[in-house]
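so im writing up the methods section and need the peptidylprolyl isomerase record in one place, dumping it here so i stop losing it
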Amino acid sequence: MALKLARTVLALAATVSLPAFAQNVAVVNGTPVPVSRANAMVAEMVRQGQPDSPQLQQQVREELVKREILAQEAVRRGIPARPDVKFQVEMAKQTVLIRALIADVVKTPVSDAELQSRYDQIKKQFGDKEYHARHILVPSEDLAKEIIAKLKGGAKFADLAKQYSKDPGSAQNGGDLDWSPANAYVPEFAAALGKLQKGQMTDAPVKTNFGYHVIQLDDVRDAQIPSLAEVKPQLEQQMREEKLQKFEQELEKKAKIQ
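--- predicted struct ---
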């Protein structure tokens, strides 16, 4: 009779303990480590590229148990009460909250119509032509006129650019500015460039806020604009960042800051 009673008690004990084991991957010094925590860590590691497997789940279990042991020891030593630790915990909490908020704000996908509209806008601003130009930048109008006279007398543009130009980005390349749309330049420069024919140079110095330019147009071609499909990822990222920036600005305007 006693043996039968003992077996019954053991069976009941086992039955009662089943839900606890189902809910926890371990119990460390009486503190449960929930399965939900392990599942979340596994999901995050899978998201980062690791394949789900029994080995990964076992590694996660061991890591969570180790972390629980260390955390309990930190509590035993009173570490959570230290001001520096409180500060770091609060900052970490804020970081997690902000990251989750940002994910919520930008999770709505940018529509194809929005992407097409932005692409068309950029394409229009870019223009339909690209110009391969050279220039010589000098500080005075008189020197620019002197250079123009030398060029008309047969001097080579590249040689005079290396000798006189104050533009550090192009002087040693003979004044070469490579291919660019007109709107890549300041308005005065772009206007003068647009009036030139292939092979021509400006008859008079072009004044901008940088100084005085002598400009030569080497060539013109149709604008080499990448397709929407090629720039879609970058464009979508840019529009998401703009959306987030606008969201932050609106929050700042509504906030009462004293």
